[in-house]
Design a protein that fits this description.
It contains 10 helices and 14 strands. It is α/β, with parallel strands linked by helices and about 350 residues long. It has one domain: 3-Layer(aba) Sandwich (Rossmann fold), CATH 3.40.50. The strands form 4 sheets. It has a 7-stranded mixed beta sheet with strand order 2-1-12-11-7-5-6. A 3-stranded antiparallel beta sheet has the order 8-9-10. Helix 3 packs across helix 10 and helix 6 packs antiparallel against helix 7. The radius of gyration is 19 Å and the shape is globular.
Length: about 350
């Protein structure tokens, strides 16, 4: 089943349009020291992009290298590992489209993510800044990356997971992994589903509901802060297997009870939150599909199915991250709005001011 909805903001009004589209997300990461030289391509075993003592996230290349080579490349002047190819001119002298988001944008298990497909269709250069488990603060704390983003002609900003945001009880250490603020700093963060399930069983439904409401407020505030930091026109992109609304379930005594109230990717995010963000962006596109799942994961060398342990119910398959077919759907859903904004940005020197709601 495929559902696509496209809203483009123009002169204070939304015009509804429709086309076809796609889905999903996120990974746990660990840290490793090291330093890469400027613009040094990352070898397949090397999956870290590090700037001095600062540590970036583990890319998917380490776990997925038998299946796919993501051709990771150091983004000049930063610690960021991006999928190649990079735009020919990152100074903005040649227009390019930038995409920011999590694993769906990065394109885990996809040779050609939706951004690459879009670039090919439009004859435009692109910059894929998708990152495992990213949330809005992932970009806010990287000013050099934001400088490059602000040289683009258009930013596709994915709706990322709400579990990648901190609250008064949990610190989001990286990706979807959380650690209580009261815990020792050397305590290993735990996956959000596990952390929230245990908290639900010990603190109860009322406590969790209040914490979720706080987390959602934090999420909206961080997104607005990120949007205000972006000078280029912004297209907000919902890329999921589910609709924006979902029913929250609070059931005790079940495995991973938090799945009922966190919801599917993008966890915790609902239509109310999207409505609060839409006035701040130039356009909004929804893509809902699960086409191509479960996806067989095959070795690039032998062609045999490879089980890397990401889906216990489907060994040797991906049933969570967007399939290649989903990326095709995503590109199709985005094409009309992206074409309109990208072409307009090339002829209009008055870009959207950061943080201004779309007029």
């Amino acid at each position: 089943m495929l559902l696509v909805q496209n809203w483009t903001c123009a002169q204070g009004r939304d015009s509804d349009g429709k086309t076809p589209q796609s889905r999903t997300y996120d990974a746990e990461n660990t840290h490793s020291p090291g330093k890469l030289s400027l613009c040094q391509p990352l070898s397949r075993p090397a999956c870290w992009a590090i700037d001095g003592p600062r540590r970036a996230k583990l890319s998917y290349q380490a776990t997925d290298r038998e299946i796919i080579d993501y051709q990771l490349t150091r983004l000049p002047g930063t610690e960021f590992a991006a999928r190649a190819p990079l735009p020919s001119h990152l100074d903005g002298s040649v227009p390019f489209i930038c995409a920011m988001g999590a694993a769906q944008t990065f394109g885990r298990f996809a040779e050609r993510p939706f951004l690459a497909l879009l670039g090919n269709r439009l004859g435009a250069e692109t910059l894929n800044l998708g990152s495992a488990g990213a949330g809005p603060r992932h970009y806010l704390r990287r000013p050099k990356v934001l400088e490059i983003i602000n040289r683009s002609s258009l930013v596709i900003l994915q709706v990322m997971s709400g579990r990648s945001v901190s609250n008064s009880y949990f610190e989001n250490v990286y990706a979807g992994s959380l650690r209580p603020w009261s815990a020792p700093k050397d305590e290993k963060p735990r996956h959000a589903e596990i952390a929230y399930t245990e908290l639900f069983e010990t603190k109860g439904e009322a406590f969790i509901r209040a914490l979720i409401a706080e987390t959602r407020r934090n999420y909206i505030n961080e997104y607005i802060e990120l949007i205000r930091a972006i000078k280029a026109p912004i297209l907000l992109f919902w890329f999921s297997q589910r609709a924006t609304n979902y029913t929250e379930l609070y059931a005790h005594g079940v495995d991973r009870a938090s799945g009922g109230f966190l919801g599917g990717f993008p966890q915790l995010v609902n239509s109310e939150m999207i409505a609060k963000l839409r006035p701040y962006v130039n356009s909004y596109v929804e893509c809902i599909t699960s086409r191509g799942l479960p996806q067989e994961l095959r070795s690039r060398q032998t062609g045999n199915i490879v089980d890397i342990g990401i889906s216990p119910l489907y060994p040797g398959h991906n049933n969570y991250y967007p399939s290649p077919e989903m990326h095709e759907d995503a590109a199709a859903a985005l094409e009309s709005a992206v074409t309109s904004i990208f072409r307009s940005s090339l002829t209009n020197s008055d870009k959207k001011q950061p943080g201004d709601a779309a007029e």
